[in-house]
Amino acid sequence: MLKNYFRTAVRSLLKNKVFTLINIVGLAIGISAAIVIYLVVQYDFNFDKAHPNGDRIYRVVSNFNFQGMQGYNSGVPAPLGEAVASQVTGLAQAAPFFMYDYNTKVSITGSQPQPAVFKKQKQIILTDGSYFKLIKYKWLAGSANQSFKQPYKVVLTQSRAKLYFPNLNNASIIGKIITYNDSVKVTVSGIVEDLEQTTDFTFHDFISLATAIHNKNLLPNYYSHDWNNTSSSDQLMIKVSKNASVKQVEKQVNDIYYQNSANKKMSRTQSFALQPLADIHFNANYDNFDQRIANKKVLYGLLGVAAFLLILGCINFINLNTAQSAQRAKEIGIRKTIGGTRRQLIGQFLTETLLLTLAATLVSALLAGYLLQVFSDFIPADVTYAMMFTPRVFGFLVALIIIITLLSGLYPAMVMSDYQPIEIIKNQRGATAGKGNKHYLRKGLTVAQFVIAQFFVMGTLLVSSQIHYLLNKDLGFKKDALLYVQAPYSKMNTNLEQVFVNKLRAIPQISQISLGSEPPSSSSTMSTHMTYRDGKKETETVVYLKYGDQNFFNIYGLTLLAGRSPQMRDTSSGIVINETYAKELGFSKPDNVVGRYIESNGNHLQIVGVVKDFHQVSLRAPILPLALATNGQRNYNRVVHMALRFGTDGSKLWPKAIRQIEKAWNEVYPGEDFEYNFVDDTIANFYKAEQNTGRLLNWATGLSVFISCLGLLGLAIHTTSQRTKEIGIRKVMGATISQIVTILSFDFVKLIVLAFVIAMPIAWYALNQWLQSFAYHTSLSLWLFVGTIGVTISIALLTMSLQTVKAALVNPVKSLRSE
Questions:
Q1: For a Cys staple, 141 with which of 191, 575, 767, 817, CB 3.0–4.6 Å?
Q2: What is the pLDDT of residue 329?
Q3: What is the SS3 assignment for 242?
Q4: What would the pLDDT profile of 386-398 be if each residue is shown by its tens digit?
């Protein structure tokens, strides 16, 4: 029986090659998108799922609320970890650790004359044995109890040990010397196996925490006793006891901080929360150890895209199969007459659907590899085509094939198997197969297709408009032809920045140079508390900080509204504030705030000027209070900003300038890697997620419109074949080709317009909600909706014309004779 089902199914599919091809292409597009999206979604949702008692593991994070402004930090004050471990009840384990420099130089001293050097190493932490009681590793050499007892010890993961000592086994690596940043020399005391699960805990060098206590260079940064300083480098993980209350533990942590904080008033602006382990990979408010942060909304959106594309392919199948029912009516009547049961007919039609779905799945398996390459910069690097051959993905494909077969094939099979032989023999069923409830169902499914397609079109147009707005909005400063270089962190206590600047002044392609902190708009921010007293009231504000010399204002074209720019003679006592901060202090006129004093960290700062507001971070956030100053501390003035010239003919002389800048860098900082950034590229990177979303929408829109138009073409082929006699009669009666094409297309255009009416309010609401995530955004223009309906109808008419024009050109004598 099954063999007969498959033989008949193959024969039927080959007989209707056009409809078979349309169905396979439509389903293959949906399935390939579903495969790629499944790989991404299951990858992200499996992070840190294998830790023992993971539901009881939390990270202590900091929340700030000052004058209605919310702030977040994944770190805690350095002393909090030790206090929590000794004072909080209801804890099974507390594990403080400290993130080492993100770009660490690692030197391996061995038998070679020159040490092996590994630059820009990340994921290095200072911790103790408590970390390994919380996050379980398999020990290959050493133990958690012994490896961290002494200072100047380090534990390595096996992959890192092989990188540093490629020719030694684990036992031989124990006792070897490693030097970090030319200043911290440690001995290898243990080796652990790398975590096999997908995890954000990708640390590979574990320096004993006691090292920070004994090393004068590490002590102030990694073992501070300051309760009022919060850094994301200071991390605290805990595991609550089995029956303990998370809320009670959280309350105890906050009570400890309030008891120890020196500034009782300001401490109330900071609170601590317990972030579940499962939330670390997804919560953008807090960093996740310098790893990629996934967005649950984006992942659910991807699932929605996959579902929509699959639905479009299934709708095509249902529409085309029910439309073809008239052609198969006699076949069904004969089968029933010779004893075929309805159950057997349903099995036959479902077999055809299964074969189509299998063929589409094979095609989609090839397309998935191509899509992974196209979106390689959007998809996590660990998501590869090799994951296609895992049991989990195989199970997903089997489930998908079954669901699509039933979803696409069951209704057409039920409809066609219901035909009665007597009606078919009288030609009643064949003549009316396209009418009635099934006719309305096809129209409804076509409308649903174009609701989805037009929703994607509207989304694509708006996202493109918003990205253009974000990249081209006036930010309050110049951003073109500006390049900046950050001096090495390890050289911050030297005067080499000024030596570098002096060398740059000799390069003719550079018009201006400034030494300061990050550019005006940057993802790297600093803030502090400032207090203003006017004799009547006290105003405390969280203020963002920027540093720069007197050329900083000129190079970025910042506009002074009152007073003057900071001068080097001001050292740290003279500051310029922005309009927003002036208004926060109660001064509507900038001139009136110049000369006033502000207190910060025990220092009295004079306001010497007011600068016009500019955007300090991405346009998702509003402009916040800001202070700009020159600063004698070199670690705040590590960034060299350069304005590049254009050639006399407008050409860019930048490649030559960059080569000369690199030459100067190598002379001043030999052995240090040269890296530079353009300011406009830095700003564009703020919106990398939106640009990726735009690319994804472009593909989703193109595919959804393509699938919908494929279905429309199939229906047009069916409609014109059903109306062959009508077309011939109309031509004999004098109808022109354009009139016939209009008549044939009108019904479909009505469906597209109806779909637009349904899609427009849905899209307006969804897109308006998306725009609200930006403090500054474009508007929902009427032209966006007009453009959508215009583009959709134009593409649909062009698609249908492939068949309607062909039908209208047929000689009426031929069509009527055949009828």
A1: 191
A2: 66
A3: coil
A4: 888 889 999 999 9
